[in-house]
Amino acid sequence: MFESPPPIITLFNYGGGLRGMIPAQIMSHIEQDTGLRMADMVDVFAGPSTGAILNAALTLRHPESSGTPKYRARHLVRFYEREGERIFPADKFRDLRGLIHDMNNRTMRISQLQSVLDHGHYNPSNLGRALRALYGDARLNESLKSLIIPAYNIDGEQLRIISETGEQGGLTMHARNNYMDTAGHALWMKNIKINGEHGRRHKTIDVTLYDAVMASAAAPTFFPCHHFQARWPGNTHPHSYTAIDGNIFDNPANTYFGALRPHLLPGQETIMIALGTGYTNRSIKKDEWNRFGSLGVVDPVNDLPLINIFFHASESALLDAFEEEMQGHLFMLNKSLLTGRQPDWPSIQIDDGSPENMKRLKDFADGIIEDNHKKYEEICDLLVRNYESRKNWIKAVKPSRWSKMISDLIK
């Protein structure tokens, strides 16, 4: 009955600022309908930005019961309702910035606008206070389940340096990828707990959940970059990073190929569940694109067209290969916030924390479940079966038999 280990179920929560309410609401329904917590049913939690906020909270240990998660998904729904307007207070300068960008700076000098454009960043201390209250002093290596938090390190001088013995016996110092020695790079902050000692060895970076999530959620044009220190195992001194939003490069396909796949056993079945925050990518005609000008392509008033393209381009390039790789084991719950838009739909902006918009985001999430009811029920069934199979697997397979079976798989 237990000839192979249970499949690995990975939950990918997309980025999207306060639109994180959408996956939070979907997960709240899943927990209510299954009677279990997400950390009971999911093996690996992954995703950038607001997805990282959700994942870090759902895998946080309860202070009075180390084997129990502190939060349920409904607690995260309340988190967005309570903190939304504090993190993103009403932006009085958005319309003015839009006007300036539409003028394409033809009549005004940038130096004269600097005092206005400086207001483009929200105060990161508001987000910081909310995350410190959520996580306390917890560290990445304390997560209940495997947790993957992506961020993009923009400072090439802060690459992790590796020392190796060269062919002539001398000691050489270089970055993992030499062509990145003077550039930024993707940073996966991972605590991998799947497959135990039989999986690929992974040393978890010593970093607080606060710093990891702040870095992953430092969305360009909304927040400044996040500078933090972390210590790699075996290193005496901490390493510095200057990071921005992991949404820059991360998506379900990149997470699978870049961060998860190296830790899977040969032939191990993998299931990916992806919960979206609403698609905002749209078709743009050539005249409209050219009319935006150099700054208009990144302005919120124009729905951040270039940034939306950045976020969707790599995923669209990998999607066909990823679906083939997953062999029918990819389950995505999401829908467009633009196509067929209704008057009562939520704002496409990631920073609208008004109570009205929070309610609309919850209703939008309920609509995703209603539109995909069969897939939603299949996801719930998969999650419950994964929870039950892992309990039965642990009971039925003695350690010595487990070791032999894994060794046979690796061979």
Q: How would you explain this protein's 3D organization?
A:
The protein is of the alpha/beta class and 411 residues long. It has 14 helices and twelve strands. The strands form three sheets. Strands 1, 2, 5, 8, 9, 10, 11 and 12 form an eight-stranded mixed β-sheet that branches. A two-stranded antiparallel sheet has the order 3-4. Strands 6-7 form a two-stranded antiparallel sheet. Helix 1 crosses helix 12 (355-371). The model is unreliable at 100-109, 163-175 and 400-411 (pLDDT under 50).
Helix content: 40-55%
H/E element order: EHHEHEEHHHHEEEEHEEHEHHEHHH
Radius of gyration: 22 Å
Low-confidence stretches: 100-109, 163-175, 400-411
Mean model confidence by pLDDT: 83
Biggest sheet architecture: 8 strands, mixed
Strand percentage lies at 15-25%
Number of helices: 14
Q: Shape, please?
A: globular
Class derived from helix and strand content: alpha/beta
Total beta strands? 12
Distance between the termini: 21 Å
Query: Which oligomeric form is depicted?
Result: single chain
